[in-house]
Design goal:
Blueprint: E1 17-19, E2 26-28, H1 35-55, H2 62-84
């Protein structure tokens, strides 16, 4: 969907479009998002995934998944504090 330009904002960010569950058609969302914030948020989430994967590289047990989730959540929370500032 990133190739689509929002008709009002002119952006190509991930918040600009969504699939309508009623008919399955991809439609523009209301122009109420902040494209710069969305980019910072997406970058923070991607970085948190990398850090969690580095900390728990070989998840084979439920405990490993729990450890990965704890690390991911901590990193996202820490980064979002910075992103929101």
């Amino acid at each position: 969907m990133s190739a689509l330009r929002h008709p009002v904002l002119g952006c190509e960010c991930s918040e600009g479009w969504a699939r309508d569950p009623a008919d399955g058609v991809v439609k523009p969302m209301p122009p109420v998002h902040d494209c710069a914030y969305i980019k910072r948020r997406n970058d923070a989430v991607s970085r948190a995934v990398v850090l969690a994967n580095e900390a728990v590289p070989d998840r084979k047990k439920d405990a490993d998944d729990e450890a990965w989730t704890v690390i991911f959540q901590r990193e996202v929370n820490d980064m979002m504090v910075k992103v929101a500032a």
